[in-house]
Amino acid sequence: MKKKISFVIAAVLLIVYAISSVDAAMRVIHQARYKLGRAFWSEKDRYGDLYTFTHLHRFQSEVGTDRKNINYKPACKGKDINIYAICDSYFKDHFVKGDEFCRANITLVHFGDRDDHPIDIDLDTTKINIIVIEKTERHLRNSIFTGQAHLESLVNVKNAPLPVATTASVNTTKPVAAAPASANSGSSQNGILSRGLRAIFNPNLNSNLEFNLFDYPVFTRIKELKASINEKWFGRADNGAVVSTDGSHLLWPPTVNGTSSESSFAHYSAAQVDSIVNALNTLNTIYKKKGFDYVYFIPIPNPSTIIEAKYHPYNNLIPVILNNKNLQVKTLDLYTPFLKSTVDLYAIGDTHWNSAGYYSFLNTFNAELEKLPAKR
Amino acid sequence: MLFNSLQFLVFFVIVTLLYFSLPKRFVVSLLLFASIYFYMVFKPEYILILFFTIIIDYIAGILLEDAKGHKRKVYLIMSLVANIGVLAFFKYFNFINQNIDDLLSNFHSQTPFPFLKILLPIGLSFHTFQAMSYTIEVYRGNHKAERNFMVYSLYVMFYPQLVAGPIERPQNILYQLHAKHNFDYEKFRVGLMMMAVGFFKKVVIADRLSMVVDYAYAHPATQSSFTYLVTSVFYSFQIYCDFSGYTDIAIGSALVMGIDLMENFRSPYFSKTIPEFWSRWHISLSTWFRDYVYISLGGNRVSKLRLCLNIFIVFLLSGLWHGANWTFIVWGCIHALYMILTNLFNWVFKKDKVKSKPSAAVQLLQMVFTFFLVTMAWVFFRAPSIKQAVGVLKAIFSFHGNPNAAFGLNNAEMLFSVGLIVLLILKDRFYPKIEIKHNVKYYTVLITIALFCYLFGVFNVAQFIYFQF
Predict the structure, then answer these.
(1) What strand order describes the sheet that includes A294-300?
(2) Which residue on chain B is closest to A21 by alpha carbon?
(3) Active-site residue identified among B322, B335, B400, B438
(4) pLDDT at position B435 over 80
(5) How many percent of chain A have pLDDT more than 90?
(6) Are strands A81-87 and A128-136 parallel, antiparallel or unpaired?
(7) DSSP states of A130-143 as a string?
């Protein structure tokens, strides 16, 4: 009997271990736990990603509930706009519901991680079709230029007026940003081997096991106790986050250091700005040729850009790009209204905005959408 | 797979539960596949190197036993050359090449060999020595050749001791791998407690002390004589807790399954002499060198001059075994010097003829002095270069202050670290083996240690120190 019980327990643990090795299975579990309700949410979903690094209790806020309760109804009526948003987690991670955009339906296309898959669409030419390229400030210098070729092919229009030559098809000598492997991609033997090895020897296994076994509310208090001991007795905290100068927020460390390309305070060159502008202009041209009426570029300021504004000189990356005289794409300036806001727009223990920040964006973007002339 | 990881804890529970629930005929296969997986987690392709040496030594062992005359020596040499060749290539190729290049640069030339991007297979030095001890013991007739390929493979790859020892002997472990071990509650309790203590030593003590040590070596401008002295003492305990902690986890996890691995540490910092230190520190390695190098060179049945040379060779090789860097070689030579001077002292003052035991005060002084000598030698072990090691020692003995002197931890954590060292010393002195007889008390102590490991453990340090060997 004892042997049978041992065997069953071992088998269950082995299944948990095996599931934790497979990224696709973990994504399914993550989504399933989210749908089950707050009691099953991960700490990251409940309290924020930066809180999860430090477990400092004073930075615990109901990030997940805040996002779930987003309820924004635009005043304008009618749906004559289709928005295709090439976006990151500022849109995708439970923020955008779909009905909060003035006159518009929205389709999200995630850029820059494992959920990154191109979509094929038929444009409804009776409506205004808009491509939105939304990117958080800390990735601007790395993603827009280096990922340009990939960005061009994320939204493919089947009924485009003419075949559109993209950078990858025209200039084979230019390096193409590698698109993440999708489940349907033709795979060489090396692809199968490396995927198999990754499934067996997944480098994320420890964090996945932690998620499956210990990422539940009952364990949060003990994690906070450890963090409290380290902070109060030893003056240390996990280096996955830093505390803002005024002590109000946790910030992502690369966005505040003096050298990182993600930083709000690090130097950048004119050439870097030009490469971003040129990449955006190329995207503007290509998507217009595909049949889109407008291409919008929406950079989201780093939390450190706004929260640390009083303490450190901002490098002005967003205003410099938006005010570049060569920039042809339409833009949405969020830096100015965010800086002026008297309300806290970012979650205290997360790298993203909170519902107030999202509403501020919606107010600004919907004002822009409302002004667009109707299609004749 | 690191011992101080959630992955290992889950892996260990799965393997142990299956070990006791599967029929005997599956046990060797289970442990072997678990060990293969354990090793491949570090770098999957390096399992091929391990299998290469396993196949060579397995065949060599059988051929050795069946052969007669000079052929036996041929097979032994074949096995040793294969093992040492693999070790030399992966561990010393670039080091030797760099030294050739440095030498030739004096003649405005450079090495003709390319520098290779070689990643050292983890635990190579350990399982190579363990494999070599097998063929040597078969050659000497002390052990029969293992005919079961899977059992032999498991002898080399048994996961608790695969990457950082103890370096086992075939006489101790092969027969245990053939046996089916029924659940032994006593061994289970002792094994679990050893694992808990091992984890405590590693994540609470060693990884905490490493923050002071790493800071000092990375920021020499913030160091004074005193801070360097404290850092050096901390490093002595860091390396002890890191390595003995790993060994405790290895021995404990094997013991839980009923398998006894050899003792590897016996409170080494209570040693009163350097020879005694080497009978208590990394026992499996020091006995390996004694049995297969020192005794082969003649041991102490030679002239005094030859004895000194033998000692020098053994410790030079020991230093080299620890790493492909001149600092390890110098460290080995320092200990050779200590051992030779100890022998000289004994010969001159005929110390071995003294029968009476020294007083407690004298013994304490001897321990402190021996600890001091070992700590000063450890500086070469830790420093990335001889220049920095010499700089540290110069700083210690210059008795200079520094207005910018700082440790890597705040005062509270420094005091806590000192408290942990005191706790360790008391534990080694009064409780070398924690044996708790009553169930409730046992589980209370076990859970308390586990809780302390979590609450006070430092979890952002990557590897055990000896993994690099």
Answers:
(1) A104-110, A81-87, A128-136, A294-300, A330-331
(2) B7
(3) B322
(4) no
(5) 62
(6) parallel
(7) EEEEEEEGGGIIII
Query: What residue type is A134 in one-letter code?
Result: E
SS3 at position B297: coil
CB-based contacts of A160, cutoff 8 Å, min separation 6: A123, A289, A290, A291
pLDDT digits (tens, 9 = 90+) for B272-317: 999 999 999 999 999 999 999 999 999 888 899 999 999 999 999 9
Can you tell me the ipTM of this complex? 0.87
State whether residue B214 sits within 8 Å of chain A by CB: no
Q: Tell me if A224 sits within 8 A of A57, measured CB to CB.
A: yes
- Minimal CA–CA distance to B383: which of B160, B164, B231? B231
Cβ-Cβ contacts under 8 Å between A and B: the total is 65
Confirm or reject contact between B17 and chain A (CB < 8 A).
yes
Task: Sort out which chain B residues have CB atoms less than 8 A from A3's CB and list them.
Answer: 20-21
Asked if B418 reaches chain A (Cβ–Cβ under 8 Å), the answer is no
C-alpha closest to that of B123 among B43, B235, B13? B43
C-alpha closest to that of B319 among B306, B310, B330: B330
**Structure confidence at residue B402 as a pLDDT band (50, 70, 90):** confident
Helix axes A217-234, B411-430, angle to 10 degrees: 110
B322 is catalytic: yes
CB contact under 8 A, A222 and B454: yes
- Best CA proximity match to A300, nearest among A342, A253, A332, A328: A332
CB B264 within 8 A of CB B247: yes
Residue B305 sits at the chain A interface (C-beta within 8 Å): no
Q: With contacts defined as CB-CB under 8 Å, which chain B residues touch A201?
A: 40-41, 44
pLDDT at position B438 is: 63
Residues 41-70 of B with CB under 8 A from A: 41, 44
Specify burial of residue B107 (Cβ count, 10 A radius: 0-12, 13-18, 19+): exposed
> Chain A within 8 Å of B40 (Cβ-Cβ)?
yes
A170 pLDDT higher than 80 = no
DSSP labels, B383-397: SSSHHHHHHHHHHHH
Return the ∠ at Cα A96 (arms to A95 and A102), rounded to 5°: 135
Q: Do A201 and B416 touch (CB under 8 A)?
A: no
Q: Output the pLDDT for position B405.
A: 83
Average pLDDT, chain A: 87
A16 touches chain B (CB under 8 A): yes
Residue of A nearest to B455 (CA): A226
Rounded Cα distance between A141 and A264, Å, is 11
In Å, how far are A274, A321, A324 from A271, measured between CA atoms? 5, 12, 12
Across the interface, do A7 and B14 touch by the CB < 8 Å criterion?
Answer: no
Q: Each residue of B439-469: pLDDT tens digit?
A: 788 899 999 999 999 999 998 654 555 655 5
Chain B residue with CA closest to A214: the answer is B6
Give the dihedral of Cα atoms B196, B199, B205, B210; nearest 10 deg: 180
Mean pLDDT calculated for residue range A127-146: 89
- Tell me how close the Cα of A320 comes to any Cα of chain B, in angstroms: 39
Give the predicted TM-score (pTM) of the model.
0.88
Q: Does A367 touch chain B (CB under 8 A)?
A: no
